[in-house]
Each structure stands twice: as C-alpha cells, then as structure tokens.
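Running this now, will post back.
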Amino acid sequence: MRKTGLKIAAFLVSVIAVSVFCFTENTFAEEDTETEILLTFGGDVTFGYKNDEEHKDSQPYFLEQNGMDYSIIFKNVYDIFSNDDLTMVNLETTITDATRHLDKTYYFRAPYEYVNILTEGSIEAVSVANNHSKDYLEQGREDTIRTLYENDILVAGENYAASVEIKGIKVGILAYVTFQTGFNYKSAIERDISYMNRTHDVVIVSMHWGQELDYEANGGDIKLAHKMIDAGADLIIGHHPHVIQGIENYNGKYIVYSLGNCSFAGSSNPTNDDILLFQQKFKMTKDGVVPSDARIIPCRVSSQEHKNDFMPTPFEGDEADRVINRVLNFSENLEYGLVELSTDWIEDPYTRKEYRLDKQNEDNNG
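Update: finished.
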C-alpha cells in the first residue's frame, strides 16, 4: 500500500571522496495539511533463497505452501506499517537472476517478484548498506537497486541517499556500513549529514555496524553516533548484530543501536528471536521541525516459537515487558541510555546521565 502525501526524490551521494548530490528521480504527491509525521523502522530483512537452497524450512517453500501470497510475511505488523507515514527496513537480500556469487558462508538472492514482500507489506524505504548487497557481485547490486526504484521504494546506501517530502516536511535518509570499507567513511558521513541537514527538515541515518550476536554497542560506534548527531542527524537506526541492543537519547535525539532482525529467511529457527520496531514522530513547530514522541514495539521474529515462519509478530503483556527490560539492561552502560521505557509513547525520555545527576543532587542535599 503506497501511503499518500509522499513526494519522493532519490539522488546519488558520493561518500568516498566528496559529498556530491545529483538529483535524478521522480516525484509524486498529494497535498496534506498535517504537521506531524510518523516513521517506523525495522531491522534486518532477508527473503528468498539462502545459498540457493530450497527445502521445507526455507522461505520459498513457505510461500509456495501459502499460494505465493507475498503479503503474508508482514501480515502481523501490517497495521503498524500501513498506519504510519513511512516504513523503512534494512534489506539484506539481492533481487536478481544473476548466478555468480561471492565465495562466502551465506549469500542471499530472491526472484524479482519477491519485491512484492516489501510493497504489499507497506514498506517504502530500505537501506542496502550492508554486507550482503554484493552477494551476487555488481550485477546483483545493480539489479536490486533498479528493481527497488521500479517499485517506488526509496533506496539509501551503496552511494545512494533518499529524499522524501511528507506533509510538507522534507526527510533525508542516509545509510552506511562501517566495515568492509577502504576509505575514511567517518569524515564522509559527517559531510553528508551536514549537507542533508542544510537541505532537509529531518535527517535519518541508518547504520550497519557492531558485532554479530553482541548485545553491547561497540565503543567506536557510540562515539561515531554522537558525532553524527552533532553533525545534524535527527535519528540513528542500527542493525547487523541480529540481536537487540540498547537505546540512547543524546541531545534530544534517539540512537537505536540495533533493532535485531525483522523478517529473517537466514535461519529456520533463530536463537535470538526478540526484535524491535521503533517509531518516531516529528512535529512542525514555529521554530521548525523537531523530534516528538517515540516508542518501541517488542516483537518476535516469527509468529511461532521455535520455528521461523518469517512473520514478525508483536509481543503483548509479560513477553513485551520482558523485552523492554532487556533493552533497559542493555542501555545501562550507555552514558545517555534510557532509564525508563514501556510500550507507551515516550514524551520525555529519562537518560542514564540525567539519572546520575539527579542521584548526585539527592546525595548532596540529603
């Protein structure tokens, strides 16, 4: 389902030497007078074939058993995705008919029609800045980006950035992978963010970083995240570890270090099946566009326990509370980590730094 009120432009961004933006794409829109927008973010999405295998636990077999109904994958989160203004995930799949692939442990490929998993799931934007974008070499990368554009899906990463206007608010999206790179990406990132900040009301940065299966945010990534906020980023969304990590609110801006997976065709029974969706509102005020309420939505990567059916499903009750407590635990060692969290909207985030200052004042006055 294509959300109304979107005016989209995609452009090439050079993050290797200089930050040069060349506008190339189309626009379409419906005018809207609302002054608040809602954005939703999910983690790693893989679909199609892992290592070109099809077996009874694979996603292609699952889809065949369900009449090739591509909408089934995001069925249990569709109400969330379709009732926001933009949904974005990290796409770790190539969409190509290429056969030559990298010599690596895991490589992912999907037929062209599998792009319908995104469009029928109400996902409008993806990051392709990850360690699977070239699984099927340059042809796989080019085929993937072309297919995404042909289906009106915004692309960020692999030297592309995205620009979308929603209800009069201009949102810029950048995406990077912080490993497997031979250039000074940190200075390039700051230049890109600085430019995007001058030309957009909201700057989103999607980061593929950290260590797989590590619940602690990497110290270097934390420093980089703070620098990105200082450079003008309004929200940083992380992925790659395949597990959830802590959340910071630094200078009034959220840094979500890892959402974990979202829909993951890479395993028939992921051992780390707790995942997060993150939602952030941005509001137009007399002083400009500012971050507003935010929330996490705890989910399981599958609708079933101990078996992956590739259908992310929200938790409720005690299970949702359990995941929230895990996020708070992972946030404890972050200087600006959240101290309080629930499934409700966060209006006034309370951070670890504020907690320490309050505790120090109590001790001094007590």
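DSSP finds eight helices and 19 strands in the chain. More later if anyone needs it.
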